[in-house]
Design goal:
2 copies of one chain form a homodimer. By secondary structure, the first copy, chain A, is α+β, with helices and mostly antiparallel strands. The first copy, chain A, folds into 3 domains: 2-12 and 476-566, Anticodon-binding domain (Rossmann fold, 3-Layer(aba) Sandwich); 38-243 and 407-459, 2-Layer Sandwich (BirA Bifunctional Protein, domain 2); 259-386, YbaK/aminoacyl-tRNA synthetase-associated domain (YbaK protein, Alpha-Beta Complex), CATH 3.90.960.10. In chain A, 25% of the residues lie in helices and 29% in strands. Chain A is built from 14 helices and 32 strands. In chain A, the strands form 8 sheets. In chain A, strands 4, 8, 9, 10, 11, 12, 13, 22 and 25 form a 9-stranded mixed beta sheet that branches. In chain A, helix 3 (51-70) runs antiparallel to helix 7 and helix 3 crosses helix 11 (450-460). The radius of gyration of chain A is 29 Å and the shape is globular. The two termini of chain A are 23 Å apart. Chains A and B meet through helix 1, strand 2, strand 3, helix 3 and strand 4 of A and helix 1, strand 2, strand 3, helix 3 and strand 4 of B. Chains A, B: Homodimer.
Chain lengths: 567, 567
C-alpha cells in the first residue's frame, strides 16, 4: 500500500497546468502555484489545495510537527469556531475590528473564527494545570485560521483562511519563558533550514499581541509585504517597523523667537519649501489622524514619510484612520495645510524623535496662507509623546553601529513573542507555587505560517521555467517523463516502480497523447528536484537524469539511475 | 527525534483525569473521553482535542488516508469558509435552514461554513477536467466541517464543528459510478475493520443529499441516534428510516357506507378507542404538520407512531414543523382532535401504505365530538401520496422475508451515496466524451465521521474501569507505570526507553508524588492496550505485563517483556 502511494501516475492525477499567468496574479508565487496546478482560488483570499499543493503542505506540516515534538511540544487541536466571551475578556473581540470574522449561531449566540488562540489556550491551561509541577508546558496545533484581510492579495501569501502552526508556552518564571522562547527560536531555525528557506531573524514590534520581546523570521522575497533593514557592517537586522531613532535633545538657546511669515498658496511641504527656498527637511510636517475617532497630530521632518504601520502599532489595538475633509468641519483650530503644533491645545501631539526638544522648524501658523519659522520643540510647543513613526529609508543610520542600512522586502514566515502575563492576568491564570502560594503564569506565543511557507518557498525557489522545490518539501523526489510512445512509457513506468520500491516518492508522466515537449514544460513548471526522461535511448534501457535546478543532465542506464537516485 | 516522540513522559504531559462524570454528560463516550482527558468542551458542540485525544484522532486520520490512497483517492484540501453562490445554485443555501452557519465578510459578502462540499468539488472538477480521459477521479479531504445542530449533545458524537473525511467520485458512466461506489464500500470496510469498530452496512435514505443509492455504516451503540433493524433470519439490515411497507390495496366492496357517530370528549386516539371499545389499530390518526409553512395532513393507523425523520426526509429539504394551536385559528376545516381526511379538500393528504386503498377506518368527522366509521381510503377520501412514515417497531415484518425484525441503536460512522447527476446538472459539469460529444458527469459522495469515530470507539471499547482502545488507534501501544519510588521510576523509564527504541509508542507514568493506586486507576481509564507495571519486584528487574481488556497479567523480566511486546 505504501508503495502504491509512492508512485503517482500523472495520467490519473487531477491536475491542469496553465501556460499563461492568471489575470489577477501580481506576484511570482501566485502565478506559478496556480499555473502549476498546486492551488485554485475559491473566493477572495480563500484557496483550495489541489493534489500537488496538498503534498507540499503535508511535507511542511510533517517537518513542523517533528521539530515541535523535538522541543517537547504537545500537539492539540482547538476549535476554529470560538465563543465570544474569552475574546471579550481580553478586549480582542472589539480590538480586532473588521479583521475578525464574526457570526451568530441559530440561538443568536456570538461566535468568531479564530485568528489566533491565546485566550482559548490560557483557559485550557487554567483548567488542566494547577501546580508549578504541571509546568512548563508547550502546546501546539496545526490548524486553519481566519482573518478578514482588507485586501486579500498575492495568492496564498495573504489569505483570509490559512494554515498556521501556533504554539503557546506556559511558565511560572521569566527565566522559564526565556527558555521556552529560546527552544522555539532554535526549533524555528531548524524548521526553516529543513524547509530550504532563506530567512533572517529580525527584531519586531509586537503589534496587537501585546508583550515585550518579539522576533520575526523573515524570508527575503520581492513579493514580501514587510520591509526589513540589514546592516552591512554589524549583525543588526530588524523589521523597519521596529527601528526607532534615538531622542537627542539639542540646545535651542541661540534660536530667535518664533516669527510668522506670509506664505500664500503653500498648503503642501513641496510648495512651502519651494516658496521659501529651503530644504523640506527644515520644515515640520503635521499629519492628522483619527484614533478611535479622535483627532491626533503627528509631527515629522518635512522630508520624511510617516509609516502608518508604526502609527497603528503605537495605538494598537485602537483603529487609526486618516482624516478627511469632513473632519475639519467646525474645527477652527485645524487649518488644513497650515497646521502647526504651537496652536493645537485641543489635540494630542505626537512627534518623531527627530523633532527632539530644542530643534527649530518652519511649520504652519494655523491660519490660511501663514507659516511660522523658528518654532522650537519644547519652547514654542509641547510634545505629548515621542514615537518613531517615520518610514525607514535606505541609508538611514544603523541604530547599532551607525552604518547606512540596506533595505529589503520579505515575507514574515514565523513570529515568536514573549507575551508575559497579559493573558494570564485576563483569566487569572495562577498555579500553586513551590512555596504554596499562587504564582501568575507567564506565556509565550509562537506562529509559523504553514500555507504561507508554501508561497515563500515558491518565491525563493523558482526560475523562468517554473518552480524548483527543495527536496524535503517537494511534491515528489523524482519526476519521470515518458517522452515517446509505448516503449518509452513502459520504461518510464518501470523506472518509476523501481524508484518507488526504493522508497522514493515518484511522479510519472505517462499521459497518453501528450507530446514530450508539453511534458518537459510541465515537469519544469511543477519543479520536482530530479527529472528522469525515458526518451530516445529507451530501447537501450538508457534514461536521462536531469537536475531541475542546475539543469545538469546525464545519460545513465536504468540500474545506474535507480542506484544514484536512491543513494 | 522519532525516538523522542515515541516515549511520552506523563510527568510532562498536559492531562488531568477526573474521577466524576461531567455534569452535562449523558452518554458513555462523552463521560469517558472527558474524564480520561482526551477532549474538553470549548462551547456547545465545539470541542478541543487534548494531547491524548489528538493522538487517537491522528491515528484514525492515518488509517483513513492510507485506505483512501489505496483506492486511488487523491488528497486535496478545500476551504471551510465558502462563498454563498455555489450553494445558491443548488438551492442548499436555503434548504439547509438553521443548520448552516452563515456569515458576512467585511464587505458584506455572504459566506457559509461548509457542512459538506459537493458544490465546490463539482466546480473544481469542472475547472480541472475537460475530457473523458481525465476521469474517473476520486478526490478526498480530511477537514473540519460545520453544522449548527439544534441540540448539540453527546459530546463529540454530534458536534457543531467536527472532523470529516469526505470524498467525491466523478465518472462519465453509471457503471463507473457503481465501481467508484464499490471501491469506497470496500475501503470503508477495511477502514472500520482496522479501526476495530463493530459495524453493519445498512440501506439508508439519502436525505438532503439527493441521489439514488445510499448505504450507511452503523456502529451499534446505546448512545447512537440512529435505529437500525436487523433481520434474525435473512441478511437484511437497514436504518429504520429506510424501511418502507409495501402498499397492498384491499377490496372494500363489503364495507357499509360511512356513518357519523357521536363521540363526546374523544380528542385523542386513546380516549376514542376506549369510548368505542375498539383497538387503536382500527382508528386512523391524522397528524398535521407544516411544510414550509403550509399545513399537510399525514394519516397512519392509530396504533402507530409517526417517524418525523421519515416525514422530514420525504419533504427534504423543506422545513417540517408540528402545528401549534395558532395554526388552527381561522381554519374552520381543521377541528382539533376530530380531523378526518374525508373533509380536508384544502389540505394535502399523505398516508402510510398501511392506509391502503380499500381499508376502512374510524376517524374524525371534522366536527367537535363527532367521529365517522367505515371511512374507506379511495372511496370516502383521496390520498394524495403514499409515504411510509411510521416508526418501525421491534417485530415488524422484515421487508425481505417477513420475519419479525430486531431493532438496535447505532452511530452513523460512514455514509456512501450514489449522487448521480444532481450536482453535475446544477453546474453543467460535462466532459468531452469518446465520441467527441459532451457527456454529463455522474458523481458519488462518501463520508466518514473522523472525530465521531473516536466517540464510536469509546462507546464500543470500554468497561466499568474506563476506555480500552484497539491497538491501531490507541494513544500509545504500552502504558508503563512506575509504581513506587526512585527504583521503580528508574526501571519504568528504562523499560519505556527500550520499548520506544523497539518502535513502540509508549506512555510512561513517571509522575512524582502520585500514588500507585492513582496511577493504576488512570491507566485503566486512559485505556492503552498493554500496561506494564514496575512495582514490587523492580529490584529484581521484574515487571508485570497486563492486558487492559482481559485483565490477564504476567510477571516477566524486562528483557522478556520487551521481547514479547515488540514481537
Amino acid at each position: 500500500m505504501a508503495h502504491a502511494a509512492q508512485v503517482q501516475r500523472m495520467s490519473r492525477l487531477m491536475f491542469k497546468t496553465l501556460r499563461d499567468d492568471p489575470a489577477d496574479a501580481e506576484v511570482l508565487s501566485h502565478k506559478l502555484l496556480v499555473r502549476a496546478g498546486f492551488v485554485r482560488r475559491t473566493a477572495a483570499g480563500v484557496w483550495s489545495w489541489l493534489p500537488l499543493g496538498k503534498k507540499v503542505l503535508a511535507n511542511i506540516e510533517r517537518i513542523v510537527r517533528e521539530e515541535m515534538d523535538a522541543i517537547g511540544g504537545q500537539e492539540v487541536l482547538l476549535p476554529a469556531l470560538l465563543p465570544k466571551e474569552p475574546y471579550e475578556a481580553t478586549g480582542r473581540w472589539e480590538e480586532y475590528g473588521a479583521e475578525l470574522f464574526r457570526l451568530k449561531d441559530r440561538r443568536g449566540g456570538d461566535y468568531l473564527l479564530g485568528p489566533t488562540h491565546e485566550e482559548i489556550f490560557t483557559q485550557l491551561v487554567k483548567d488542566q494545570c494547577t501546580s508549578y509541577k504541571d509546568l512548563p508546558v508547550i502546546l501546539y496545533q496545526i490548524q486553519t485560521k481566519y482573518r478578514d484581510e482588507a485586501r486579500p492579495r498575492a495568492g496564498i501569501l495573504r489569505g483570509r483562511e490559512f494554515q498556521m502552526k501556533d504554539s503557546y508556552s506556559f511558565d511560572t518564571a521569566d527565566e522559564g519563558l526565556a527558555e521556552s522562547y529560546a527552544l522555539h527560536r532554535a526549533a524555528y531555525q531548524r524548521i526553516f533550514e529543513r524547509l530550504g528557506l532563506d530567512y533572517r531573524i529580525c527584531a519586531a514590534i509586537a503589534g496587537a499581541m501585546g508583550g515585550s520581546k518579539s522576533e520575526e523570521f523573515l524570508a527575503p522575497a520581492a513579493a514580501g509585504e514587510d520591509v526589513f533593514a540589514d546592516c552591512p557592517s554589524c549583525d543588526f537586522a530588524a523589521n523597519t517597523e521596529a527601528i526607532t531613532y534615538e531622542l537627542k535633545p539639542v540646545d535651542a538657546a541661540g534660536v530667535p523667537a518664533l516669527e510668522e511669515i506670509p506664505t500664500p498658496d503653500t498648503p503642501t511641504i513641496e510648495t512651502l519649501a519651494a516658496h521659501l527656498d529651503v530644504p523640506a527637511s527644515a520644515t515640520l510636517k503635521n499629519l492628522l489622524v483619527k484614533v478611535n475617532g479622535e483627532i491626533v497630530a503627528v509631527g515629522v521632518p518635512g522630508d520624511r514619510e510617516v509609516d502608518m504601520g508604526k502609527v497603528e502599532a503605537h495605538f494598537a489595538p485602537a483603529v487609526v484612520e486618516l482624516v478627511t475633509a469632513e473632519d475639519f468641519v467646525g474645527r477652527d483650530d485645524l487649518v488644513r495645510g497650515y497646521v502647526g503644533p504651537q496652536g493645537l491645545e485641543k489635540v494630542t501631539y505626537l512627534a518623531d524623535p527627530r523633532v527632539a526638544p530644542g530643534t527649530a522648524w518652519i511649520t504652519g501658523a494655523n491660519e490660511e496662507g501663514l507659516h511660522a519659522k523658528n518654532v522650537v520643540a519644547g519652547r514654542d510647543f509641547e510634545v505629548d509623546a515621542y514615537v518613531d513613526v517615520v518610514v525607514v529609508q535606505e541609508g538611514d543610520p544603523c541604530p547599532n553601529c551607525g552604518t547606512g542600512l540596506k533595505l529589503d522586502r520579505a515575507i514574515e514566515i514565523g513570529h515568536i513573542f514573549q507575551l508575559g502575563r497579559k493573558y494570564a492576568d485576563a483569566f487569572q491564570l495562577d498555579v500553586l507555587g513551590q512555596n504554596g502560594k499562587p504564582v501568575r503564569v507567564t506565556m509565550g506565543s509562537y506562529g509559523i505560517g504553514v500555507s504561507r511557507a508554501v508561497a515563500a518557498l515558491a518565491e525563493q525557489h523558482a526560475d523562468d521555467k517554473g518552480l524548483c522545490w527543495p527536496r524535503e518539501v517537494a511534491p515528489a523526489d523524482v519526476h519521470v517523463v515518458a517522452a515517446g510512445k509505448a516503449k518509452q512509457t513502459e520504461l518510464a513506468l518501470d523506472v518509476a516502480d523501481q524508484l518507488g520500491a526504493a522508497g522514493l516518492r515518484v511522479l510519472v508522466d505517462d499521459r497518453p497523447g501528450v507530446s514530450p515537449g508539453v511534458k518537459f514544460t510541465d515537469a519544469e513548471l511543477i519543479g520536482v528536484p530530479t527529472i528522469v526522461v525515458a526518451g530516445r535511448r529507451a530501447g537501450e534501457g538508457v534514461v536521462e537524469v536531469k537536475d531541475r535546478r542546475t539543469g545538469e543532465r546525464e545519460e545513465l542506464t536504468v540500474a545506474e539511475a535507480v542506484a544514484r537516485l536512491s543513494a
